[in-house]
Amino acid sequence: MRKLISGMKITVDGKFEGPQGYAEWVEAWSDDYGVMPEVDACLLGGGMYPGYEQYWTGIQNEPDKPAWITGNPPTPAELEWARFIAQTPHYVLSRTLTSALWPNTSFIRGLEEIAALKQQSGKAIYLIGGARTTASLIDAGLVDELRLIMYPLIAGEGKGLFATTERCRGLELRKVQQLQGGRVSLIYGID
């Protein structure tokens, strides 16, 4: 069975998004979780996908132009991720979206389709988000591993990553790594 790996950037108080509606503390959206060698598919929620597609299409088409979320030119790691995802199948969990600009994009309508996707042969699947999708898939027992990059700040207001999670889940700490700028990488297995 394929693993479903979720990766999220959060604050110490568990926020993935600040009061402005985005994670203003994140300087780049590259693969800081080390998933590229391990995955061959990406999964996103329907609420997140349009912005994700727009952000990465902009970087792919104009790699020297500042990205619209960060206001900075893409980092070398973001350019590497942009090349990787251009060739990687994407699955979008949505009951309403029916079209995408990216040709390797398919739509999934329910949790049973994600469970079936995990049964197919292949590498792990990277669950990129958003938070509601991540919480619902954790509640459904479909997420196998949680990779967090914790930023050394308290956001206060904003959206909590686990705010909509309904079930208690045990986590098994698999790896801790201190990163630059006081960030910490945490990898958990989910019971």
TrEMBL record:
Domain of life: Bacteria
Any GO MF annotation of the entry: 5-amino-6-(5-phosphoribosylamino)uracil reductase activity
GO BP of this protein: riboflavin biosynthetic process
Domain Bacterial bifunctional deaminase-reductase C-terminal, residue spans: 2-180
Classification via Gene3D superfamilies: Dihydrofolate Reductase, subunit A
Signal peptide: none
Name of the protein in question: Dihydrofolate reductase family protein
